[in-house]
Design a protein that fits this description.
The complex is a heterotrimer.
Chain A (H helix, E strand, L loop, with lengths): L3 E12 L2 E12 L3 E5 L6 H9 L6 E6 L2 E2 L10 E4 L11 H11 L4 H14 L15 H13 L5 E5 L7 H18 L2 E6 L2 H7 L2 E6 L2 E6 L1 H6 L4 H6 L4 E3 L17 E3 L4 E4 L11 E10 L3 E8 L2 E8 L10 E6 L1 E6 L2 E6 L1 H4 L7
Parallel strand pairs in A: 3-8, 3-9, 6-7, 7-8
Antiparallel strand pairs in A: 1-2, 1-4, 4-5, 9-10, 11-12, 12-18, 13-17, 14-15, 14-17, 15-16, 18-19
Chain B lengths: L12 H28 L3 H8 L2 H34 L5 H7 L2 H4 L2 H12 L6 H4 L10 H26 L2 H9 L4 H30 L2 H7 L9 H10 L3 H32 L2
Helix pairs in contact in B: 1-13, 3-8, 3-10, 6-8, 6-11, 8-10, 8-11, 9-10, 10-13, 12-13
Chain C lengths: L1 H9 L13 H31 L3 H9 L1 H34 L5 H13 L2 H12 L4 H8 L8 H12 L1 H14 L2 H8 L4 H30 L2 H7 L9 H10 L3 H42 L1
Classes of the chains: A alpha+beta, B mainly alpha, C mainly alpha.
């Protein structure tokens, strides 16, 4: 790749006998905003810290812009880092926090001042420059941390769970602001998150990390539509795992395995008559009905399988115990650590029996 | 809406609060107020003459100077000890960590005679200074050493938890921004430790000013030279000069409470800036 | 995540990765300073006591300890501790209960008042009881008319010791009970438990180690108090001499071996105090990490 800016080759990291990073390789293009997504304790933060030089990989190589940086000290890597709890200097004002990196680099006073105010403006902190961190809200602290990391004009910005410590209300607003601002500056950025909504909304590309391994890399929509591993299929989106899909109507595919994942959006649920391919649908019983704000989430039982499906608020309300039809359009079936999309065969039947 | 958080379903407030105030009054407040009460019996002139007599002033000087120097040395060395114990691993670390508490647990009189034996001109340590004509025991240096023993745990045990709680990421942030270790220490770490250091210093100082047991053996008790204020109170009591003893005590009490107040202010301020 | 990383890194020789630690040479210099300082100020005094007491043979050592005046000093010291520690414990529990489980105005002021004895010189701690209860005072004269002697007798020594050790247990319990909050007690009360039952079944199990910790410190100070007791005791050999006072008398009479031998008893008590203290710290630390684990799984 000509455009590749960061190249990570086969890095490994163990803490004692615990393998935190296991043979991870990837490349990142210049100017992209990348999300490292995965469950807590899966090794995302360790990868980020290895990129920053705060941890050292046991083996493997890291290249920034073609230069091997394994032995380069954190301060010489040209990175900015936003910590999960911001790690602001609590006895310094907003101005002093942002200016710290510039003073270390012995910028002239006036230049420091100009740069700091430029960043204060960019981050919408005008008027707060003389406040101490404890006088700021969570969102404001995050902006200060962001400005402080950007001040010395790094070529790579690393953010560790940047929104984890902010309450839900402000979080959405802040993350779209951050995505816009990063796009505006055009700085290559990598952020760690365990929240898939966050990753999908903010990132250009997502790396899914689980148990120290890179499961899949791709744009959010690619990962969603074509999950490569069982883990990705079950981690992204809402899903139900089925141990034996042969028990379900229309799924007699022989692919060497019977495990599959079904998502709510792969299913239609309704009273007899509401479903088009009734012959391809299974009989189901409503076990629970949850109001989810913009729709109903219905828990239904088919044999000994439990499924979750969505239902429009416009349609007739279902009650617990109602008999309904569940039409499963497709599933992600797993075959030796690979996923295959399988479609409901009865739906494709050239001569459907219409009751 | 009717309860403003003041109501409480738990029983026993009246009884425990009542007993607390009663016991506090009997053991602490009433006896202490006796000092003020007895000084009020003195004329202002008598009081002033007592506390400004040459010998009393000299004893205050000795007490305060030695306590100040000891607290300062403890600030420096206590900080180094606390840092080494929290940040490094070395052989015997747990042993040394527990040793810090010894001055809290060891009777002061024992500490006094042990330090005297150690720092006397023929003692294990004193003999190394003897050839240079430096005498430690029976001088103000000896008093300072005894007060260092007494005050050490105050500094170490105040600073240690703060060093432990320092956010590792704050230091990493400074490193990534390019700061050297020295700069990180002085600009980022040290400012966070100042309130704890000041508190430890003040506690060690307050304890040092009033200390008696460990000092009387090593000081030599020469009036005007190595006589500390608490010893002078003792001497006056033995001469049945209760008024004189009380006057000196009142001055020391006022100073102690001023230090206590200062410590509270430092603590309140540092709590305010914590995130 | 970060927690795992720091813990794992801690198990190695270096407690911190190199980029946030000092250069090796600085590190070793600081360790050396610490060890030399602690040895010359704290460790050597401890050793010299044992050395001096055994210098002239174990026979003289034992003789100095079992000598009647020393034994009576030991008995008096134990008596003082046995009276002081339970009373201050009871006070500490009451004060902590009132302060941490209820809201009232002036709470911080009350806590500061409890701290007051920490700031008072031991000699002054003794002086105030002479002023209050000595023969020159009205109260002292009144007691004397009933032939009750307070100053220069056991009651005076106990009072002075109680004053000096007054804050220890309350000071240990207040922050502990503050951190624990009142939810568990409220839950017990809502289930109909009586006050005593709430205390013994809910509060006490949570504070027992903290209480023991405070009692150990209180005990050490009660045994070792010198200045305050010296003022009120009257130094009557075999009657109002506690162990530390006995050490002083022997030392001033140039009976150095005997002075150090009696001191060594006090050193053993001090070492025992530190061991128990260290054990309690280890125990509570363990409990805390267990609690955290439960929180994580829950």
């Amino acid at each position: 790749m000509a455009n590749s800016y960061i190249e990570v080759k086969n890095i490994n990291k163990k803490f004692g006998s615990f393998s935190a990073v296991n043979d991870v390789s990837f490349t990142i293009e210049k100017g992209k905003l990348i999300g490292l997504l995965g469950p807590s304790g899966g090794g995302k933060t360790t990868i980020l810290r290895i990129l920053a030089g705060l941890e050292y990989a046991d083996s493997g190589d890291i290249y920034f812009d073609g230069q091997r940086v394994n032995e380069v000290l954190p301060q010489d890597r040209g990175i900015g880092f936003v910590f999960q709890n911001y790690a602001l200097f609590r006895h310094m004002t907003v101005f002093q926090n942002i200016a710290f990196g510039l003073e270390v680099k012995k910028w002239p006073k006036q230049k420091v001042k100009d740069r700091v105010f430029e960043l204060i403006e960019l981050t919408g902190l005008s008027g707060l420059e003389n406040r101490l961190p404890h006088q700021l809200s969570g969102g404001q602290r995050q902006r200060v941390a962001f400005a402080r990391a950007l001040a010395p004009q790094p070529s790579l910005l690393l953010l560790d769970e940047p929104f984890a410590a902010i309450d839900a209300k402000v979080r959405k607003e802040l993350r779209s602001w951050l995505a816009e601002t990063i796009a505006k500056i055009g700085i290559t950025s990598i952020f760690v998150t365990h929240d898939q909504d966050e990753a999908v909304e903010v990132a250009n590309e997502i790396l899914i990390i689980n148990q120290g391994k890179l499961e899949q890399m791709g744009s959010p929509i690619e990962i969603y539509k074509n999950p490569h591993t069982p883990f990705v299929a079950s981690f992204i989106g809402q899903s139900t795992i089925i141990e034996n899909f042969h028990e379900l109507k229309g799924f007699d595919h022989e692919i060497g395995s019977t495990r599959a994942v079904v998502r709510p959006e792969f299913m239609d649920l309704g009273k007899p008559g509401e479903i088009n391919f009734a012959s391809a649908a299974q009989k189901a019983v409503v076990k629970n009905v949850f109001f989810r704000g913009s729709n109903w989430e219905i828990e239904v039982q088919v044999g000994n399988h439990i499924f979750y499906a969505f239902r429009s608020l416009e349609k007739e309300q279902l009650r617990v115990g109602d008999e309904v039809l569940l039409l499963i359009h497709r599933m992600y079936a797993f075959n030796d650590n690979q996923t295959v999309i399988i479609e409901n065969r009865l739906k494709e039947d050239p001569m459907p029996v219409i009751i | 809406m009717f309860f403003f958080g003041k109501r409480n379903v738990l029983p026993g407030f009246r009884r425990t609060f009542g007993f607390t105030v009663l016991y506090l009054s009997l053991i602490v407040l009433i006896p202490l107020s006796g000092v003020v009460w007895n000084t009020l019996g003195m004329s202002w002139l008598d009081f002033w003459e007592t506390v400004t007599s040459d010998r009393v002033i000299a004893s205050f000087k000795v007490s305060f100077l030695c306590a100040l120097v000891a607290a300062f040395l403890n600030l420096v060395f206590g900080f180094i000890v606390a840092w080494a114990l929290e940040r490094y691993s070395f052989w015997g670390k747990r042993f040394f960590d527990n040793l810090i508490d010894l001055p809290f647990a060891l009777p002061t009189a024992v500490a006094g005679i042990a330090l005297t034996a150690l720092y006397a001109p023929n003692g294990w340590i004193g003999r190394f200074f003897e050839p240079f004509d430096i005498q430690i025991a029976y001088t103000q240096i000896g008093i300072t050493i005894a007060l260092m023993f007494i005050g050490l745990p105050f500094v170490v045990r105040t600073v240690q938890p703060i060093i432990q709680e320092l956010d590792k990421e704050v230091e990493e942030a400074a490193v990534i921004l390019g700061a050297s270790r020295l700069r990180t220490f002085f600009r980022v770490i040290f400012p966070q430790l100042i309130p704890a250091l000041l508190t430890g210093f003040a506690l060690a100082f307050a304890r040092g000013v009033g200390e008696y047991g460990s000092v009387v053996f090593i000081s030599g008790n020469m009036p005007f030279k190595t006589e500390i204020a608490p010893l002078l109170i003792m001497t006056k009591l033995e001469q049945y000069d209760y008024a004189g003893a009380t006057a000196i005590a009142l001055v020391m009490l006022i100073i102690s409470f001023a230090i206590l107040l200062l410590i509270n202010i430092i603590q309140a301020k540092s709590n305010k800036t914590s995130l | 995540m970060a927690g795992i990383v720091t813990k794992k890194a801690g198990s190695g020789g270096d407690l911190r990765p190199p980029h946030i630690s000092e250069p090796k040479i600085v590190k070793w210099i600081l360790i050396a300073i610490s060890i030399i300082f602690l040895c010359s100020i704290v460790l050597l005094p401890l050793i010299i006591v044992l050395f001096e007491s055994l210098k002239n043979g174990i026979g003289l050592y034992l003789e100095s300890i079992v000598e009647p005046d020393a034994m009576s000093a030991l008995l008096l010291t134990i008596t003082v501790a046995v009276i002081t520690v339970p009373l201050n414990s009871f006070f500490g529990i009451c004060a902590a209960w009132a302060i941490t489980k209820f809201q009232f105005r002036g709470k911080n002021f009350l806590i500061s008042l409890i701290d007051v004895p920490f700031a008072v010189s031991p000699v002054i701690s003794g002086l105030i009881f002479i002023l209050l209860l000595g023969t020159n005072s009205a109260l002292g004269a009144w007691f004397e008319s009933y032939n009750i002697q307070i100053i220069f007798a056991l009651p005076g020594i106990v009072l002075a010791t109680m004053f000096v050790t007054f804050p220890f247990i309350a000071r240990e319990l207040i922050p502990l009970m503050q951190a624990q909050g009142i939810q568990e007690e409220e839950a017990a009360a809502s289930l109909g438990a009586s006050g005593w039952k709430i205390f013994w079944r809910v509060t006490f199990p949570n504070i027992k180690w903290g209480l023991l910790y405070g009692m150990i410190l209180c005990n050490a100070r009660a045994i070792g108090e010198f200045g305050a007791v010296s003022v009120v005791s009257g130094h009557i050999r075999g009657e109002t001499n506690t162990l530390p006072l006995h050490v002083e008398i022997l030392y001033n009479e140039y009976q150095f071996t005997a002075a150090f031998a009696v001191s060594s008893l006090l050193v053993f008590i001090a070492l025992l105090t530190i061991i128990v203290k260290s054990f309690i710290e280890w125990k509570t630390h363990q409990q805390q990490s267990q609690m955290q684990e439960v929180d994580h799984h829950g």
